[in-house]
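HUMAN:
Just now I want nothing more than another pair of eyes on a protein record. I would be glad if you read both lines and explained how they fit together. I have put the entry right below:
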Amino acid sequence: MEKRNSNGKKINNNSGNYVSVRTSYHPDWFVLNLDDAITKTADLAIVPTWGLKRQIGAHFTYETAVGVGYRVVYVKENSFNDNATNVDEDYNRNQYIIHLQLSIGYAF
């Protein structure tokens, strides 16, 4: 931020480029309204992300980010029909995923 400010660029509302690691974990603890042929599975995702945030005018901001990462799906056998399916009907345990983000905000 200091380098950006010293170059005369805006840093209002945390404007700048950034690198982050996006993580998510979805447990299989509580699920409603699933067909008996589908078993809810847990998954863990880790996605390195590059993004930027900029101010538009006096109050508006936009942010965009992109990343490619890895997701592990903890597939378990379905007790009804012995199929290893999950909610999104994917049979792969290890998956590559893409993260795309575009946000617009208003700062008071």
